[in-house]
Amino acid sequence: MFQLIDPEGRPDSTALPDLSTDALRRMYALMLTTRLADDKAFKLQRQGRMGTFAPSLGHEACQVGTALALEKDDWFFPYFRDLGSYITLGYPLENYYVYWMGNEKGSEIPQDLNIFPLSVPVASQIPQAVGAAMAAQRRGHRNAVVCTLGDGATSQGDFHEGLNFAGVFKTPNVFVCYNNQYAISLPREKQTASATLAQKAEAYGFEGIQVDGNDVLAMYVKVGEALKKARAGGGPTLIEAVTYRLSNHTTSDDAGKYRSVDEAREWEGRDPLVRFRAFLSGKHLWDETLDQNVRAEAETLIEEAVKAAEAMAPPPLEEMFIHTYASMPAHLSRQLAEMREIQREKGR
Amino acid sequence: MKLNMVQALNQALLQEMERDPDVLILGEDVGVDGGVFRVTDGLLQKFGAERVIDTPLAESGIVGAAIGMAAYGLRPVAEIQFMGFVYEAYHQIVDHAARLRNRTRGRYTVPMVVRMPYGAGVRALEHHSESTEALFCHIPGLVVVTPSTPRDAKGLLTSAIRADDPVIFLEPKRLYRAGKQEIPEEPEEIPLGKARMAREGEDLTIIAWGAMVPVAQAAAEEAEKAGIFPEILDLRTLSPLDEEAVLESVARTGRALVVHEAPRNCGLGAEISARIMEKSLLHLEAPVLRVTGQDITVPLAQNEDLYYPSPQRVRLAINKIMEW
C-alpha cells in the first residue's frame, strides 16, 4: 500500500511531492472545511433542517487528495459520498446542502464545472464515466475522467462492465474506489474474496494500486500520476483508497448494529486530519493560530452556505415539469395546468 | 428508391453520420458484422472503428457509456441486439437516461437513441420475441418510437437521432424485410409525437403500431367486404402519446379498438382506452376493446402464431364492436 505519511504524521521524505507551503496549507484547509461542513450537515439533519444524507467523516484525505489532482478540463463522476471533492472542485456548498434538503436546484451543476450529479444507484456511474472518456477520445481532447465509487460498488455488474470497457478501449479514466470497509453493514471481506480491490484491475488489463486513503499526499500523488498517464493516452487506472467510514452509512443508519466500538476507535486513531496536521506541525508549517484562522474562515463559509440554502424557495410548480423533455409534451402541460388550478383553489 | 425497413434504417444512420460528426454507433456486432440483422452494414467501412464501435458483450456497459457520451456532447446510437436483452440496461435507461435532464435542471441532457428489434413472428429462439414497450412508456423522460413502414423507419430514426431526448427506438423485426417501399432519398424528418393516419375510415378507429399495423390493415380489408370501414391510426410514437389524434378520430367514428402484441395486463392499450373513456365517453357507441398478446410467456416458435393478434382476431373484435 502506497503511503507518504505514516499515521503519526512522519513523512517518507524521499518521495514527498514538491508542494509549496501554501499548497500544503490549502490541502489542510480543504480537509478541515470538509470535516466542519459535514458536521454541520449532520447537525442540520438532527435538527430536522436537512434530509437523510451520506456523511463523509473520515474520507477527507481521499476525497480532497483526489479532487486536488484534477485539472480544469477533467471530468468528475462522483458517487454519493463525496463532499470533500465537491468543496475542492469549487461546487457551491449551498447547492450541496440544498440537494440534501430535498431541492433539485442542488444538482443543477454550474456551467463551468464538469461534475456529474452524484450517483445514488451504486456503480451505475461507472459505465457513464467510461462513455464520457470515450467521447473525450473521440473529440481529441487531452483530458481525463475521474470516477469515484465505494467498496460495495466493486460487486456490481456495472463495475465489471465499465472497467472492462475502459480496458478494451484504453480510455482516459481514473477510477478511485474509496474502500471504507463497509457497504452499509457488509464488511469488506464479505464483499469479495479478492485479497485487494485494486487487484481487480489486473483482470481488465490495466494497473490497480492500493493507496493509503487516510494520507492526503499519497492520494494526491497517485491520482495525479494516474491522471497524467490517462491524459497522455496510457489508459485507465484503478486506485483503491484504503480508508474507514467513521460515521454511520447515512444519518438513518446505526453502525453499532454491525461493527464494534473497538474497531471504530482504532480507526479514529488514524484520523486523516490529525495525521496531516501532525505532518505540517513537524515541518513547522502549522500552529494553533493558523488552525483557528482556517477554522473561522470555514465556519463563515458554512454559515453563509446554510443561510443561502435555507433561503432558497422550493422549486416552483413549473420547474417540476419543464425539465422532463426538451419541450413540454401536451400531457405534461395538462398536468401542470391542473396542478396550477388546484394551487389557485387552495390559495382562495 | 425502393427499400425494405433494414435498408431504410441503414440509410438513416448513414445520412445522419455524414451530416453530423457527433453521431456514432455502438453495440454488439455492429461493426465488422454489420449487426445481426445487418442494419449497420457497411457503416464501419465508411466511418471507421471510432464511430462504429464493436463493444464487449454488455448491455449496461453499452447504454451507460452512451449516456456518458451523450452528456459529453455526442449523439450516440446504441444498438441492443434483441429487446429481450435490454433489461440488463434497464436501470441505466430508467435511473439515468430518463432523468438526467431533470435532475441537473437541463445542464446535462441525453440525446441518445437506443435501437432494438422487438416482437414475435420470425420463429426466433427464446427471449427473442417479446414486446415490452409498456416498460418504457411508463417512464417519464423517455420517448418511445416504433415504425411500421420503411419510410417511417428512416424518417423516425432521423428525427430520433436529431432529438434532444433519449429515444427508445423499437424495430418490429417481423417487418424488417416484409416488403419494399418507395422512399425519398434525401433525409426526411418525420415528427416524433405524431400519429399517422394509415387508413381512412368512418365506422371505428383501430389504434396500432409496429408489426400490428399490417395485421390491422388485413383485418380492415376483410371488414370492408362486409361494408364496415375502419380507420387505422399508426401511433408511430408510443410515448408521449398523440392523444389528440386518437381523440379526434374516435370523436368521428364513435368506436375504438386497440391492437398490440404485448400482453394485455397493463399494456399500452389500457392507457389508450382509459384516455378515450376519460375524455370521449359521450362520443362512444361501444366500449373500447383490445386485441392483444395473451398474458402468458411468449411461446416458442411452434405456437407463436397463437400468441399475438391475427387478422382474424382483429376481425372478430371489429364485429363485436359494431354489433354492440
The CATH topology of the largest domain in chain B is Rossmann fold
Order of helices and strands of chain A: HHEHHHEHEEEHHEHEHHHHH
CATH class annotation of the largest domain in chain A: Alpha Beta
Q: N-to-C terminal Cα separation of chain A, in Å?
A: 66 Å
The residue fraction in helices of chain A comes out at 40-55%
Percent range for β-strand residues of chain B: 15-25%
Just give the CATH class of the largest domain in chain B. Alpha Beta
Question: What do you see in this structure?
Answer:
The complex is a heterodimer of chains A (348) and B (324). Chain A is of the alpha/beta class and 348 residues long. The model of chain A has no long low-confidence stretch (mean pLDDT 96). The longest helix of chain A has 26 residues, at 21-46. Chain A has helices at 21-46, 60-68, 83-89, 93-100, 125-139, 157-169, 188-191, 200-203, 216-231, 261-268, 272-282, 288-311, 317-322, 330-347; strands at residues 75-77, 145-150, 173-179, 182-183, 186-187, 207-212, 237-242. Chain A folds into 2 domains: 21-315, Rossmann fold; 316-348. The radius of gyration of chain A is 21 Å and the shape is globular. In chain A, helix 1 packs across helix 12 (288-311), helix 2 (60-68) runs parallel beside helix 3 and helix 2 packs parallel to helix 9. Chain B is built from 11 helices and 14 strands. In chain B, the strands form 3 sheets. Chain B has a 7-stranded mixed beta sheet, with helices on both faces. A 5-stranded mixed beta sheet of chain B has the order 9-11-10-13-14, sandwiched between helices. In chain B, helix 9 crosses helix 10 (268-280). The radius of gyration of chain B is 19 Å and the shape is globular. The N and C termini of chain B lie far apart (45 Å). The interface between A and B is large, with 47 and 48 residues.
